[in-house]
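It would be a great kindness if you could assist me with a short task in structural biology. The matter concerns a single protein, recorded as an amino acid sequence and a row of backbone structure tokens. Kindly check, if you would, that the fold set down in the tokens agrees with what the sequence suggests. Thank you for your consideration; the sequence and its tokens are set out here:
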Amino acid sequence: MKARTLRRHAKESFKSLGRNSWMTFASVSAVTVTLILVGVFFVIMMNLNKVATTIEEDVEIRVHIDVAANEQDQEKLKQTIEQIAEVKSVAYSPKETELNNLIDSLGEEGEAFKLFEQDNPLNDVFVVKTKKPTDTMKVAKQIEQMNYASKVKYGQGQVEKLFNFISMSRNVGLALIIGLLFTAMFLISNTIKITIVARRKEIEIMKLVGATNSFIRWPFFLEGLWLGILGSILPIILISVAYNQAYDYLQPKLKGNFIQILEFNPFIYQVGAILIALGAFIGIWGSLMSIRKFLKV
């Protein structure tokens, strides 16, 4: 397409938006309301996913080394564990560190355990992380069969429930977002269709004077694009302001906590880009689907 023709289509699309101001307002409002809902839900789901990922990454396997194992036995056990394809890292934690961690975790009640510093009854430990948190159970069962692995702990029973809950939450969230997007596309398509129905005479006249389907379609294509972009501006502003306030309020309270929310920058800019892309896509899709009937394509 020539640049002159494209400029003509763009100019006509802007003129059409002005001539049909009430229909334009209705279409932009439909896009705005829908994208606010989509944006808010998307922000919530992404932060819940962040929390879920943090919890998953915190899952580890603690391999208690048999007290009878010497340094060579421990090194051999470590190498055997590292050879498992699903293993990401193996860190050594001596029994002295384990005792200090126990004392610190118990607070004042842990003072009594300082008596064991001279005769430490705990085991040396290998802390194992898997590449995928869901492989924890599988790897733990393999390590249990190895020599000098006295005990293998990973929160058996609770970890399985945790992963099942996280998986279900993600699937439900994804289904809700997809359902909301389809609902948005349906509502916006119908709103834009009303706009195009009101201009069917204009389309019929253009067809009678010999205009091609492509020539007729382009201004509506651009109108849908502008409607989608205009409809995404307010949701981006509202969500950015609301998330900035929520981030400033929650971040100090969560400082030092293993649960963290996504940082304002660059997350909110990513959300803005997604909303603009969604608005443009929905506007274009609604226009093209609505005009097909009148073009008899």
